[in-house]
Amino acid sequence: MKFKLDHIGIVVENIGDLADIFRRVGLEDPTEPVPFTPLKVAGSFINVGGTSDVYLELLEPTRADSPVANFVQRRGGGLHHLCFEVENIEEASRELVQKGFPMVTEPIECAAYDENLKRTCEGTTKISFFRISERILIELIEKGR
What we know:
The chain has four helices and eight strands; from the N terminus they run βαβββαβαβαββ. By secondary structure, the chain is an alpha+beta fold.
């Protein structure tokens, strides 16, 4: 299984506040936040990789019962996950499970990723999440082609 870093997920209470800080540092403007209803979050991306398209993803909870709302309450936000692009998410997910990593979210469609980055493609991008330690998750992403 071959991994390529796609983005680093950071959970925040308010996307706008952190986006302003990154803007002042000199990074590109973030994308407009797009809601992802299945996980009750909104996400915004900032390209930090230049031509290699590596992003910071800023995630904020959209509801009190969002999986990341508890993360904000307990830890005040912060590093949440590393996302790696894979060619076949089903195969890569099975492999991580076989290696003993607990699956947090089975592969699901994530049109919000494509919408956020203004990607036009056939097929929808899919994501899944795995716990690799007490404090960090790995997200797998298979981009729509």
